[in-house]
Write a structure and sequence with these properties.
The complex is a heterotrimer of chains A (156), B (534) and C (374). Chain A has 156 residues and is an alpha+beta fold. Chain A has helices spanning 25-48, 55-76, 141-155; strands spanning 3-6, 13-17, 80-84, 88-93, 99-104, 109-113, 123-128, 131-135. Chain B is an all-alpha fold and 534 residues long. Chain B contains 17 helices and 1 strand. The chains are: A alpha+beta (156), B mainly alpha (534), C alpha+beta (374).
Chain lengths: 156, 534, 374
């Protein structure tokens, strides 16, 4: 679920932003376990043939694999919330709204900043009076553009 | 993921670095994919130059141009440059470019690791090239005269350049393992909502399997060459029969890596074909599910039949029977893949742009290489073919269409997407014909050479082998030089210009998939009403 | 000019010859040579079977693809059948195709398996003739275990062999027809592989391993092959020449070899003191066959792999050191132990090496010196 439109009480509209997350934690563990088991099988087979020197290599690799899965899982659990009511716009970042900011609705600017290189992703920032918050950095380019368009039309 | 509050000055200057730093520090999948592809192109020319040296030497009987050690050194380097330098990075480049676009992810899962896995490659290539040139310096020891298989005890005799080679292999291994882990994680967890595994584009599937294979086999090779290093310098005797070791163990370790490596080279190109053929036949891929199943079967069986590269080492009857039957069985899933491609073409409305020409060429020539592979799988007959020029012809027929032509097809197919310019179709077709004709003149006669009794990896041969070698060398020159045309087309397309058409988001009439919904090049156009913060 | 002529013009003429005149046809083969035994014939047959099956399948695939790219093209106005993959064929092809392929596979594997058993299992007969084949860098040693004969087989130079260069040797492997022969392959240094296409098998020679194959030759003739496993610098210069002869001729040949051996042994063990000139003459001949492949006839070697002997510290230093390296070889290099040579031969080689190419040490080594150094 990349961009979710919510209608929570107290706000005119709210957008929940989350990165793609196609597997549940359990499924990721399962995938890791399947790869790990295959790797273990290879390691045991060749160690028994006398090539025990592959153990450090498969071991290191398993560690990197698990770390990569863990880091990605952690990354994919982030979320951002943009709430819009009559006068103000609130952004809260993190599951527990760790960082909250609010801006006056009337002054709010929604900007897509171009990257120096054409094919680099643009960055979506909202804010006013010299204070800006970047949102949706983890979104895919077209989603970000759509979000920007949606925000602008909502704010009008 | 800068999520903190910032001032608008920060918003301006917190951008990506420019100039060379942009490439060195880049964590953008498109940048890194481009770097991979450029690196592969450079390596393709280095590997090709060494191949042309080999063929120039074999043009006539006698030793004319290079000495035997340099010849063997070139044979070694040609293989390593092509496999680790050209084909694998090119496939990784396609993966970096296309996988996030295809699955609707913003980037690869671990962008900084992605950067690392690319930037290890130039270091590894430097090591590899050093292993080639070090013997020419005083005190540099002997040249690597073992071939890429680096079998002990011969590889223990070689001078310090073998150590460079071992470290180069380690680095290349680290690079491809990191890239594989990144791709697996990306494909597992970053697919767009609604895209289940069985709806994933075929190219993603092929890379998922490829990455899985890489993860399983690369550490075995790394362990094997490390043991070789210990044998060379630290007095162990893993592979030294005189010290109670087993020289054949290395062959098992090497081919446990080496055989799945064939599928690692092959599968990404199969993935490319699964996109190219439906696009130009204007109908969906025939048998998506059986394609996925066949690929999983190839990977599984391919992992456990490695010893068919070593039929002549004197295994037990039971072992060779097992490896023979297993190897022959690979023809089932591979046959199914080829069948699915033909069935995709069948009753389509085909047009033959360059990618499609390559695709049809691949189907025909890869089938040929696959069938000679079944011949090689038969143990009694392999007693004859083994280590002859027949084998050289066979694996070039498999890997050149199966891997390299597939990558060419992919480059022509997606180049309009990457650059926003259509390549010159006439030149593309010209390149295809010169390339394919040159390829066939080069390698077809080598079948006959092998059957007539010419072993591979010899610098000098009896006059009875002259005719076909002359023919093969002439073909090799055509084949080799044709790649200059490829280089020209690529540069011309990147530079663009009035003579070239612009490409829209959808470069091909029949193209389907997420990657054709974003612009060409992706994220090129400015968002129309994008306000600037002043 | 000569280089140009040989390298550029000759091949072009050859190609012209192939294309237009067909004159060269007799010279180059396109398939395996005629097998020289039943076993080899079986292998040849299985090769022809799989090749025929492969050819037929290839023709079918080509035909279908060519038909399709001719008829199913947009330029002929063909409309793509968007539901082809939803027909019964589309639903069941994943079963049909593997079953068909499996049938082909089974035909091949079944035929191959029968041949494989006979190739792999050496007949357990008492009077089978044992032949030990040892690969060396870069020559072959054939040890007739039942006859006490040993043959060293080395490539001949271009001048000696003419058109058979790289396919001709000084001492052939003489084998009798009509007798089962067991080959035991091993290697003294790195991996080699014994391959004579007429005998139809190839087997690696691996140090520390003994691999076996067998054959019963059924026709006389001269069969040529080469080493097939990359074994270093002169891998291309390891030909094998098998001379298949009648059993009578073979027995005669064995007697001749034994007589030569007895004479050589008598000469070596005689307590005669050899003169310097005699030793140098003998040594030069031995050096040029056994040592010159690496150290070169001129004694300059091919550094860094093969060090020069001309002016080297070992060849001009203490005699004991020189004897030691020749008798024991040098670990980790291509220099092997030559202790299988007799005392006279080693004495002659060392005397030659210490006096040739300006290494004028004036040393004379007698067989007795070698004996005491062993």
């Amino acid at each position: 679920m990349a961009v979710l439109e919510l209608h929570s009480p107290g706000a005119e509209v709210a957008y929940l932003l989350q990165p793609n997350r196609s597997l549940k934690s359990g499924q990721i563990c399962l995938a890791g376990a399947v790869i790990g088991a295959a790797l273990l099988g290879v390691t045991i087979y060749f160690s028994m043939q006398g090539a025990w020197m592959i153990i450090p290599f498969t071991g290191l690799e398993a560690i990197v694999l698990v770390t990569a899965l863990y880091l990605q899982c952690k990354w994919s659990k982030q979320q951002q919330l943009v709430e819009i009511d009559d006068t103000r716009v609130y952004t809260s970042i993190g599951r527990n709204a760790d960082e909250r900011s609010s801006f006056p609705r009337g002054w709010l600017k929604v900007a897509l900043i171009k990257a120096p290189c054409d094919w680099h992703p643009k960055r979506l920032v909202i804010g006013s009076h010299g204070r800006f918050v970047e949102i949706g950095a983890f979104l895919e380019e077209s989603e970000r553009e759509r979000l920007a368009a949606t925000l602008r039309s909502t704010l009008q | 993921m800068s999520t903190t509050t910032m001032t608008h000055d920060e918003a301006h200057h917190h951008g990506a670095p420019t100039g060379w730093k942009r490439w060195l520090y880049s964590t953008n999948h498109k940048d890194i994919g481009t770097l991979y592809l450029l690196f592969a192109l450079v390596m393709l020319f280095l590997g090709g130059a060494s191949a042309m040296m080999i063929r120039a030497e074999l043009f006539m009987p006698g030793i004319q141009l290079i000495d035997p050690d340099l010849y063997n050194n070139l044979v070694t380097n040609h293989a390593l440059l092509m496999i680790f330098g050209a084909v694998m990075p090119a496939a990784a480049g396609l993966a970096n470019w296309m996988i996030p676009l295809m699955i609707g992810a913003p980037d690869m899962a671990l962008p900084r690791m992605n950067n690392l896995s690319f930037w290890i490659l130039p270091a590894a290539a430097t090591m590899l090239i050093l292993s080639f040139v070090v013997p020419f310096f005083p005190g540099g020891g002997t040249q690597i005269n073992t071939g890429w298989t680096i079998y002990p005890p011969l590889s223990v005799q070689v001078g310090m350049s073998m150590d460079f080679l071992i470290f180069a292999i380690h680095l290349l291994g680290v690079s491809s393992v990191l890239a594989s882990i990144n791709i697996i994680v990306t494909l597992l967890n970053m697919r767009a909502p609604g895209m289940t595994l069985m709806k994933m584009p075929m190219f993603c599937w092929t890379w998922l399997v490829t990455a899985f294979l890489l993860i399983l086999v690369v550490p075995v090779l790394a362990g094997g060459v490390t043991m070789l290093l210990f044998d060379r310098h630290f007095g162990t005797s893993f592979f030294d029969a005189a010290g109670g070791g087993d020289p054949v163990l290395f062959q098992h370790l090497f081919w446990f890596f080496g055989h799945p490596e064939v599928y690692i080279l092959l599968l990404p190109s199969i993935g490319v074909l699964s996109h190219v053929i439906p696009t130009f036949a204007r109908k969906p891929l025939f048998g998506y599910r059986s394609m996925v199943g066949a690929m999983l079967a190839v990977a599984t069986i391919g992992m456990v039949v490695w010893a068919h590269h070593q039929y002549t080492i004197g295994m037990s009857l039971g072992a060779v029977t097992y490896f023979m039957v297993g190897t022959i069985l690979i023809s089932i899933p591979v046959g199914l893949m080829v069948f699915n491609f033909i069935a995709t073409m069948w009753r389509g409305a085909m047009t033959f742009e360059t990618p499609m020409l390559f695709a049809v060429g691949i189907i025909l020539m890869f089938t040929f290489g696959g069938l000679s592979g079944v011949m090689l799988a038969v143990v009694p007959a392999d007693m004859q073919y083994h280590d002859s020029m027949f084998v050289v012809a066979h694996f070039h027929y498999v890997l050149m269409p199966g891997a390299v032509f597939g990558l060419f097809a992919g480059v022509f197919y997606w180049l309009p997407k990457w650059t926003g310019n259509m390549y010159d179709e006439r030149l593309g077709k010209l390149f295809f014909w010169i390339n394919v004709i040159g390829f066939n003149i080069t390698f077809f006669p080598q079948h006959f050479l092998g059957l007539a009794g010419m072993p591979r990896r010899i610098i000098d041969y009896n006059v009875m082998f002259t005719e076909f070698n002359v023919l093969s060398s002439i073909g090799a020159m055509i084949f080799g030089l044709s790649h200059l045309l490829f280089l020209y087309i690529v540069i011309q397309t990147i530079r663009g210009g009035k003579s070239l058409k612009r490409s829209g988001a959808k470069s091909w009439e029949g193209a389907k998939g997420l990657e054709w919904e974003v612009d060409s090049p992706p994220a090129f156009h400015t968002w129309e009403t994008a306000p600037q913060i002043k | 000019m000569c280089f140009k002529c040989n390298y550029i013009i000759k091949p072009l003429l050859l190609i012209l010859g192939m294309v237009q005149l067909g004159t060269a046809h007799a010279e180059f083969g396109v398939n395996f040579p005629e097998p020289a035994g039943e076993l080899a014939q079986n292998i040849f047959d299985i090769h022809m079977l799989t090749m025929s099956i492969a050819t037929i399948l290839l023709i079918i695939v080509f035909a279908i693809v060519i038909y399709s790219i001719y008829y199913h093209r947009k330029s002929r106005g063909y409309q793509a059948d968007q539901n082809f993959h939803n027909t019964w064929f589309g639903h069941w092809s994943w079963v049909i195709v593997p079953v068909l392929v499996l049938g082909v596979d089974f035909t091949i594997a079944n035929n191959a398996n029968t041949v494989l058993k006979t190739v792999w299992e050496v007949p357990k007969e008492k009077d089978i003739m044992d032949l030990k084949v040892t690969g060396h860098q870069w020559w072959w040693e054939f040890d007739y275990l039942d006859h006490g004969v040993k043959v060293e087989s080395r490539a001949l130079t271009k001048e000696q062999s003419g058109d058979l260069y790289l396919r001709d040797v000084d001492n052939r492997l003489v084998l009798p027809t009509g007798k089962k022969i067991r080959f035991l392959h091993t290697s003294a240094d790195v991996n080699h592989a014994f391959w004579v296409p007429e005998l139809a098998f190839k087997k690696d020679a691996i140090p520390g391993y003994v691999t076996e194959t067998w054959i019963e030759l059924d026709r006389e003739g001269v069969f040529r092959g080469q080493c097939a496993e990359l074994c270093g610098t002169w891998h291309s210069r390891m030909p094998i020449v098998v001379e298949s002869v009648s059993p009578e001729r073979f027995a005669q040949w064995v007697d001749e070899q034994n007589a030569i051996k007895v004479a050589a042994a008598a000469e070596a063990s005689s307590s005669k003191t050899w003169s310097k000139d005699e030793l140098i003459a003998k040594g030069e001949e031995l050096y040029n066959t056994k040592c010159a492949a690496c150290h070169q006839i001129t004694g300059t070697g091919l550094p860094p792999a093969f060090p020069p002997l001309k002016g080297s510290a070992i060849a001009t230093g203490p005699i004991a050191g020189h004897l030691k390296i020749v008798l024991n070889g040098k670990e980790g290099t291509a220099m092997q132990s030559w202790s299988s040579l007799n005392d006279l031969e080693i004495a002659a080689i060392i005397t030659y090496e210490r006096n040739a190419w300006g290494n004028d040490t004036g040393d004379v080594i007698q067989p007795a010196d070698v004996k005491s150094a062993r």
